[in-house]
Write a structure and sequence with these properties.
By secondary structure, the chain is of the alpha+beta class. The chain has helices at residues 14-21, 60-66, 89-97, 284-297, 314-319, 338-342, 361-370, 421-427, 465-471, and strands at 4-7, 10-11, 70-80, 112-124, 130-134, 149-153, 159-168, 173-177, 199-204, 212-223, 238-241, 253-256, 261-270, 279-283, 303-304, 307-311, 328-333, 349-353, 356-357, 376-383, 386-393, 395-396, 414-418, 436-441, 453-457, 460-461, 475-483, 486-494. It has 4 domains: 9-34 and 61-177, Beta Barrel (Thrombin, subunit H); 191-297, Trypsin-like serine proteases (Thrombin, subunit H), CATH 2.40.10; 303-396, PDZ domain (Pdz3 Domain, Roll); 403-494, Pdz3 Domain (Roll), CATH 2.30.42.
Length: 495
């Protein structure tokens, strides 16, 4: 039987989820990022005590202080009902095809119905109520869009409505926020200190049964190129563990023997979909950088070096006179990039960054992505058989499809971007709206303020900056825009 990688959230489990639907409030879940928000983290970077004199017969006291921060995550989709479902013969067929329950009241005219989308886990990491989970936990697998509603269930059985602050599919990290006083908070470890053989605990909400803790060890670190994340340009760098984790554990906590968070449980290798002792967690150091960026900046800012890389091989290490079997060979340096300015050259073999060994290209990409633009990195490398070091100030990685990576805005005084998941969350834009959004305005045209979505230009739909440049004309342009639930026409003159 073929072994497959399984993401750990449990989707469309009607029997388990239906118990929670009655308790889900009709509040708006997908909301904007909080202006000037801050996240307060407890971080304990010291290594665990690995001496044999500290062997424990029980970890109950440690886990009793830690696991209250682990929560269940229940997601729902809102189904818009047609004006008269009885008159639509395709309605019931489509519901059965997609595995949705039958209409509760088929004679009802219009309205909405909430149906379960999935079950996962999360971890409260700050007193402000920020919760780390996986991006795929809060993503509708049919549409690829964020779910409509999220409910968080605490260890004490309380249920709270959560807001989606942001998500990063390239790392499979998402951030939720719940509002309640005196929330438990987990302490974060330094996941770079994790070693094979360290005792770890997987805590989460498998199959919706409630808080469950299993025990194992770190089986490997720095697992890359597994094909778990399908997003182009993804950053895979997992801790592997044999702690028993199952469907519904996605987004839950991987905890060390001192009760600190070392990773976010994400996926398993399995022939059956159940646990066989090969699970993967996102290191908390990586998840933490995404968390801070999403909360405090509203997007994910990644460092940029400006090189093309190849994994070192035994053959290439001999040719390049490198005394290691690991590292990343520089095959191209982008002119004018931070790497170019710092003096990195083709055939240099990078073997460390900030004193951490670089095992592969994938690992170096992750290390760079964890540092924000403008920060300095110290690279260790071999050049013509000699070890050397240099410091490089990282630039900003431009996201594919962002305004920064495309042609300039055709509208003077406006910065515009194609709609993304995070922009929709930030500006509370429904999934039904398509277009390009104003992210910064000079104020010259008051009706084209920040948050306005341009849907059409001169009668033609628009979805990219490139589309807009083709459609605008000199002189008067007729824009059809959306803003805060209303559509209107706006004239815009191009000199």
């Amino acid at each position: 039987m073929k072994t497959r990688i399984t993401l750990l959230s449990a989707y469309v489990i009607v029997v388990l989820c239906s118990m929670h639907l009655q308790q889900v409030a009709s509040a708006q879940i997908v909301s904007g990022l909080e202006s000037k928000a801050k996240v307060t983290l407890k971080v304990d970077p010291k290594p665990i005590d690995r001496s044999t004199s500290h062997n424990k017969a029980s970890f109950a006291n440690i886990l009793s202080k830690t696991t209250p921060a682990v929560v269940g995550v229940y997601t729902s989709k809102i189904i818009r009902l047609p004006s008269n479902p009885r008159l639509n013969p395709m309605e019931e067929f489509l519901r059965r095809y997609y595995g949705l329950p039958p209409l509760q009241n088929p004679s009802k005219s219009g309205g909405e119905e909430r149906v379960p989308a999935g079950i996962g886990s999360g971890v409260i990491v700050s007193p402000e109520g920020y919760v780390l989970t996986n991006a795929h936990v809060i993503t509708d697998q049919r549409t690829g869009q964020p779910v409509d509603e999220v409910t968080v269930k605490l260890a004490n059985k309380r249920e709270l409505i959560a807001r989606i602050i942001g998500l990063d599919k390239a790392t499979d990290v998402a951030v939720l926020k719940i509002d309640s006083p005196n929330l438990p908070q987990i302490t974060l470890a330094d996941s770079d200190q994790s070693k094979v053989g360290d005792i770890v605990f997987a805590a989460g909400n498998p199959l919706g049964v409630g808080l469950t803790v299993t025990m194992g060890i770190v089986s490997a670190t720095g697992r890359t190129n597994l094909g778990i994340l399908e997003e182009p340009g993804s950053y895979e760098h997992f801790i592997q563990t044999d702690a028993a984790i199952n469907m519904g554990n996605s987004g839950g906590a991987l905890i060390d023997s001192e009760g600190r968070l070392v990773g976010i449980n994400t996926a398993i290798y399995s022939r059956t979909g159940g646990n066989i002792g090969i699970g993967f967690a996102i290191p908390i150091n990586l998840a933490k950088s995404i968390l801070v960026s999403l909360v405090e900046k509203g997007n994910v800012d990644r460092g940029f070096l400006g090189v093309e890389l190849e994994d070192i091989t035994p053959a290439s290490s001999t040719i390049l006179k490198v005394p290691t079997a690991y590292g990343a060979r520089v095959s191209k340096v982008v002119t004018g990039s931070p790497a170019d300015k710092a003096g990195l050259k083709v055939d240099d073999v990078v073997v460390s960054m900030d004193e951490r060994p670089v095992q592969s290209v994938a690992e170096l990409r992750v290390f760079i992505s964890r540092k924000p633009p403008g920060e300095e990195a110290r690279l260790g490398f071999f050049r013509e058989g000699k070890k050397a070091f240099l410091k490089v100030t990282l630039g900003r990685l431009k996201d594919k499809g962002s305004a920064a990576d495309s042609e300039p805005s055709p509208f003077p005084g406006l910065n515009m971007e194609p709609l993304s998941d995070n922009l929709r969350l930030n500006y509370e834009i429904p999934k039904s709206i398509e277009g390009i959004i104003v992210t910064k305005s000079s104020g010259e045209v008051s009706s084209l303020r920040e948050g306005v979505v341009v849907v059409e230009i001169n009668g033609h739909p628009v979805s990219t900056i490139k589309d807009a440049r083709k459609l605008v004309e000199r002189g008067l342009n007729r824009l059809y825009v959306w803003f805060r639930g209303r559509h209107t026409f706006v004239p815009y003159r191009i000199p």
